[in-house]
From TrEMBL:
The keyword Transcription does not apply. This is Glycoside-pentoside-hexuronide (GPH):cation symporter. Pfam families: MFS_2. Residues 250-471 form the Major facilitator superfamily (MFS) profile domain. Signal peptide: none annotated. Keywords: Membrane, Transmembrane, Transmembrane helix, Transport. Its main location: membrane. The chain crosses the membrane at residues 27-51, 57-78, 98-119, 125-147, 167-189, 195-216, 251-276, 282-304, 316-334, 340-364, 396-414, 426-449. It is a multi-pass membrane protein. It is found in: Cell membrane.
Amino acid sequence: MGIANLKATEPVAKNPEFRKFGMKDKLGYMFGDFGNDFFFILVSSFLMVYYTDVYGLSAAFVGMLFLIARLWDAVADITWGRFIDTRKSGKHGKFKPWIFRMSFPLVISGVLMFVHIPGMSNGFYAAYAFVTYIIWGTLYSTVNIPYGSMASVITSDPVERTTLSTFRTMGAMLASLIINAVGPLIVFVDNKADANGFLMAAIMFGILSIACYMACVKLSTERIVAPERKATDKKGGMGTTVKGLMKNKPLISILFASLLFMMCMMLIGAVNVYLFKDYFGNATALSLVGIIQTVATFVAIPLVKPLVSKFGKKEIASVGMLFAALIYGLLYFLPNITTTQFIIVGALGMFGMAFFNIVVWAFVTDVIDYHEYLTGLREDGTVYSVYSFARKVGQALAGGIGGFAIAAVGYDATREAQTQGALDGIYALGTLVPAITYLIVFLILVFIYPLTKQRLNQLTSDLAEKRKGNN
């Protein structure tokens, strides 16, 4: 299992010169995902309708673009993760400098995505969308991979890492609250997508994103430093890494669960725009949906720590997924539901879904520990990038399937009003598909993911013993 390598790669003790882990670190890590999601949620929620209704691109073409771009981003994640793992820690740490350097080109590329030059051909708009979207996605990897990996060097304490996961979710939810509450009011004029509104939103959220990234860099402290590997370790490192990843059942199962979860989240975000704009005829109601989703998550947050402490992460996440599946299934079968009724019932599904979404980053820490148990190598950047790879594949599938599905049910951006068949299809995409997907995630967590509360405690104990034995 490569246990002999544990001493060479084991994180060193915390530097006494650094201040103790505290609220600054939690807030700094929260601001990181706050900055990420100002653009990520803007893109996932509104870019498809921008491309179809402003650029006039077909939903099928947009689906293909999303599929290609996200698959490319998944490869970029792995490449960048391996690159980060080969870098030495500097004065300001190993990961923070990359967040600082790459955040500026990331935000600039994000604004460029929403630039509309009137009167150009469909071919020009298609090419411009393709180039700018792929550039933005690639640059997103250069910021998100070091940010996600940084949790493991801020603290080595499992409880503190779970706190970081919670604060990361809070950052994402705050960004979601702002974008979903304010975004529709800016980007839609008279219930139609407005090119100037989209550009204004991109600039505004871009400025806020940069401010959040700088706060993340300023407030977070990297305390844990892994010594350089010996030359003999480096030669066989990649082979050992790959073998460890293939044997890592917790990683593989959580990859599939996260892939499906992310795919469903992205699909709901994309379809909801059409659901409320066309099915309910009320695009501005998306603002209320965004607010309620955030409130549901914040209601769940204080319940997570005591429930995880008593029952375990796997246990509460699986129950939450089952509850969400039942709620979305109920929505599908409720006849003649109004906008208000849909939002109220949907809020319950969001509450159940929140438990998995809150603890998912703590799952990643667990599978990183299991990778170390199998290989003796602490490769936070690589393992995190593999996890991020699965999420990007989920995004790719969601973008591709979403575009094709919207087209398949008969959506036509040129029509003043959609056919009843198209509207019914959009409703099924927003309810029945999430119900089935969340049920599958529940089954994966219950029957495949092996790290129950008891087995995770045993893993933590075994790792501590191995590290102690190699000191």
